[in-house]
Amino acid sequence: MVRVPNLTRADALSAVRNPLAFIAERWTPTSRTVQRAALSALVMAVVIVVTGGAVRLTGSGLGCPTWPKCTDDSLTATSAMGFHGAIEFGNRMLTYVLCAAVGWAIIAARSQKPWRRGLTRLGWAQFWIVMSNAILGGIVVLVGLNPYTVAAHFLLSTALITVAALLWRRTREGDAAPRPLVGKSVQQLVWFLVAAAVLLIAVGTVVTGAGPHAGDSSEVARMAVSWENVTKLHAVLAWIVVTLTFALWFVLKAVDAPSGPLRRTRDLFLVLLSQGVIGYVQYFTDLPEALVALHMLGSCLVWIGVMRVLLALRERPEVVADLPGPATQSALTRA
User: Fold this and answer.
1) H or E segment and range at residue 179
2) What separation in angstroms does the CA of 89 have from each of 77, 138, 146, 253?
3) What is the pTM of this model?
């Protein structure tokens, strides 16, 4: 049994002044632990989007009619508020789980030896996005589920997924300067794919804002656009993304690209096909809630897939310290 050293007054003061540095001095996580911490933050970022969708699809968006309290007189949902209050308050509580996952990612990144400052910064970026989105979520409730604020809420969640996916990738590579694995033309094609995916997601929020699932059983304002027309635009953009993905796979095969970009492109193509099937089925079956929820999950997976394709176009090996060569060693020996 290893004896745990006593905590001195100086240790306590150090922990209060800089708790992250205090933990880092006493804990060194493995690389796998850091990777798992980053992955947990990414998974929770997706979960919070899906559960937020469940709030809207069950008409529970105003289950807690105010914010930051659930009601004017209660911080939590009450039994009188029923199912909708429990759903909305439960989603608010999941924000704390998300914060815990992001916090674990920050602590693990800060404690890794050697300290990789870039990973810690990505972790803190997630934290501030979560805080900003929590405030925006409160504004969404206070303005009665205004569809434009709901769209902004979803887009900020997508920004969180972006940073979380980047952190997860960075934990599995080094800090050397990135080296491209493909040529400029392929990189440009991927950036066209990224731009099309951004438009696809943005127009998807308009489809939601104009569609029938307003988020509450009461009268909620909708975006003043034709839902049919914007849905068709969304479908066209989806086909553009699919076409660009297939073209990218074909080009990568033609130029004999490394297996990494090829695998990521194949994975994205399969996710896009699944998402397309769900999208068309929900459209022709009058938007059943279960399929809409699956489509929201698919939206997150599509964007993660696009990010993985983009990040697979380069490699970042470990930084290797320069060792003295034979001539340098001889000179040091003579000295």
Assistant:
1) strand 179-180
2) 6, 12, 19, 49
3) 0.89
The pLDDT score that the predictor gives to residue 7 is 64
Sign, CA torsion 62/68/72/78: positive
Residue 295 CB partners (closer than 8 Å, separation 6+): 275, 278, 279, 282
Angle at 86 between CA 82 and CA 87, to 5 degrees: 120
- Write phi, then psi, for 262 (nearest 5 degrees): -65, -45
**Within 10 Å of residue 146's Cβ, how many Cβ atoms?**
17
Count CA atoms within 13 Å of residue 51 on its CB side: 18
Q: Are 275 and 299 in contact (CB under 8 A)?
A: yes
Count the Cβ atoms, other than its own, within 10 Å of residue 216: 21
Q: Are 37 and 104 in contact (CB under 8 A)?
A: yes
Task: Give strand pairing partners of 216.
Answer: 60
End-to-end CA distance of the chain: 49
Q: Hey, what amino acid is at 19?
A: P
Q: Could you tell me the sign of the dihedral formed by the alpha carbons of 129, 134, 137, 138, in that order?
A: negative
Tokens of 185: 């033309």
Q: In degrees to the nearest 10, what's the CA dihedral of 269, 273, 276, 280?
A: 160
| Whole-angstrom distance, CA of residue 28 vs CA of residue 23 | 9
- pLDDT of 332 reads 45
Q: For the beta carbon of residue 74, count every other beta carbon within 10 angstroms.
A: 15
Q: How far apart are CA 124 and CA 109, in angstroms?
A: 10
Cα–Cα distance, 195 to 264 (Å, whole number): 17
Mean pLDDT in consecutive groups of 10 residues from the start of the chain, 335 residues: 56 72 87 96 96 87 87 85 87 94 96 93 97 94 91 95 97 91 94 97 92 70 89 95 96 91 96 93 87 92 97 85 48 46
